[in-house]
Design goal:
UDP-N-acetylmuramoyl-L-alanine:D-glutamate ligase, alpha/beta
Length: 269
């Protein structure tokens, strides 16, 4: 039976990140995707020029409508924008304890625009992070959640992955894409064990939506019953392939999107 996965995130009208990227990643990885929108953005491959927030009670109403009718096998949470929206999501999911949650703590867009209001950080840290089955911060996000300096090497990445579990998530994946050099390692802290995922940095400017896609595909594989470690391995392989195929597209003049359907559109590449 095909699994059902819900994304709770912001909308990207250019199609590269947010809800649109999540739905593509769900479809590409064989699950049925659903979407609850927390914010509308005006953005393209060159940056974000505006944000319109969805009322917290309407975010809650969207989630309630999905759960009232459909069996949800996993949830991915992305852009929450405000403390009020974070609290509304946490309250609505409070009785869904058997549903795994992948939390991507989106704070800043690739072009540098803030996607999380300053007062929302504490709500993210205290009401949503503890509910996460898997937390997937990049290096700046991990540092902000811990109120520390950004990790500069593998040792500090591992330390911060372990430290983040003290906030409540069962498993933490710290993504090393911001490290300098040709390597882009990720580290997973899972059940007291560190797992490293080694990735070569791919030379392309078209990486818009990479974090959204990784967390969405991770939720898809967890919904299918994979362990967090196996799900991360599968999701990482998928995203690396999508980045490698990104230059076969011509979308915009800035940081273009990755190619979500590279495995399905082989004749187009």
């Amino acid at each position: 039976m095909i699994k059902n996965v819900l994304s709770i995130a912001g909308s990207d009208p250019s199609g590269g990140a947010g809800i649109q990227a999540d739905l593509k990643a769900f479809a590409a990885n064989g699950v049925y995707g659903m979407a609850v929108i927390t914010a509308l953005t005006a953005q393209n491959t060159q940056g974000v020029t505006g944000v319109e927030l969805v009322a917290p009670q309407f975010v809650k109403a969207q989630i309630d409508a999905v759960f009232a009718d459909i069996k949800v096998d996993a949830v991915k949470i992305g852009m929450i924008a405000t403390a009020e929206i974070a609290i509304a999501i946490a309250e609505t999911l409070a009785d869904k304890k058997d549903v795994p949650i992948v939390l991507d703590p989106v704070m800043i867009a690739k072009g540098g625009a803030p996607l999380l209001q300053p007062d929302a950080m504490e709500a993210l840290r205290t009401v949503l992070v503890p509910k996460a089955t898997v937390l997937t911060p990049n290096l700046p996000e991990a540092a902000q959640l811990l109120d520390l300096s950004e990790a500069r090497d593998r040792s500090e990445m591992a330390q911060q992955a372990r430290a983040l579990t003290a906030l409540g998530p069962k498993t933490v994946l710290v993504k090393g894409g911001h490290l300098p050099g040709d390597e882009s390692p990720d580290v997973l802290w899972d059940s007291g064990t560190l797992h490293w995922f080694e990735n070569r940095r791919i030379s392309t400017k078209n990486t818009h939506g990479t974090g959204c896609t990784l967390s969405a595909s991770l939720a898809a594989f967890i919904a299918k019953g994979l362990s967090p470690c196996s799900a991360v391995a599968q999701a990482t392989e998928y995203v690396c392939g999508a980045i490698a195929a990104a230059d076969h597209q011509s979308v915009g003049h800035g940081h273009g999107p990755i190619q979500h359907f590279y495995n399905l559109w082989r004749n187009e590449l």
